[in-house]
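step 3/5: co-fold with pyridoxal-5'-phosphate
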Amino acid sequence: MTLDEARARDAADPLRGFRQRFDLPEGVIYLDGNSLGALPKATAAAVADLTTRQWGERLIRSWNEGWIEAPLRIGDKIARLIGAAPGEVAVADSTSVNLFKLLTAALRANPDRRVILSEAGNFPTDLHIAEGVVAGIPGATLRVVPRDQLAEALDDKVAVLMLTHVHYKTAERFDMAAWTARAHEVGALALWDLSHSAGAVPADLNGANADLAVGCGYKYLNGGPGAPAYLFVAARHQAALVNPVSGWMGHAAPFDFADGYAPAPGIKRWLAGTPPVLSLAALEVGVDLMLEADPALIAAKSAALFDTFAAIGDALGLECVSPRDPAQRGSHISFRHPQAYPLCQALIAHGVIGDFRAPDILRLGLTPLYLGFEDVVRASAILADLLATGAYRDPQYAARHAVT
Ligand SMILES: Cc1ncc(COP(=O)(O)O)c(C=O)c1O
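step 4/5: write tokens
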């Protein structure tokens, strides 16, 4: 694709107006929105209002003027992005903590089954948390197998099949409906990590009959660094599952200040402590912005950006480890390269911000709301140049060329 062709594609892009809604620095092509989403322009004003007016002027009265409802209000908004119903999603804690809560609850609710099954190479925190969960439950074990052995390992001992919908390294995407059905066939629950899915690719939890899910707020939802995470519990499980982090915000009547814990009905019981109101304000802006975009257009543009990059990668002789079929991948493209680290550093030095995942993956996020075809063409021209000269191999290259 030439620069002119890319500009023509951008001009015809129905999502092109969204780019103006983000604060992107001059001279940067941002290909890391799958790790930390860009800053929406409206965020600064929302956070300023939160601090100066809501906190500064209204003080504690603000708890009754929208703060206390924020975790479930924003949860209902995220629900619309992931195929959940109102009352099935809460914003709380981090993805890691939410995994702990849901896995522990699922094991406690089903004492006949003691196995959490997951994939080798799943995002580390998912496996680490599962390890911590089984360590605290007598007889429980974590079974971790390569993707091609999951079907065989899914037996009637499994309480929860825990999978990440879109793989953080390769962007491979599981068929959520098919794997949820397989889990249900053996009587297990399916828990999905949607961190690389929400706001990027279609995720239809209820369409897939999924049981549980978690996800990040700081990637494609553009909620800001360390944004609160969310969790989903299908309505049919809400009465039976109990939050092991039994904090007062998940109590049926927190302001009765009772000694004993009585879980709130519905999704509210998954809250634990006082919600992080400043962070929620930033997250809500990102979620509201995402809700304005048509998910079908996001998916189509993600696929087109990927195809453009993949074709250029092919021409450059790069090994693409992400699936070519859009239905089988997320919204980033990953190339395997023996020198992926210095190559990534050199790209960053030229303002093309992607990331490196050990040992040999160059990972480039394709965020349809603020990335255009011109960005892809410009980034790949820089990549082509680096590969042609081999200059990036010089350990001092990135330092010498750094854009400040
Ligand atoms: C699939 C997945 N799960 C979880 C996380 C992170 O969890 P936390 O927000 O608790 O650090 C990430 C972060 O990149 C991720 O990619």
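step 5/5: annotate
DSSP finds twelve helices and 15 strands in the chain.
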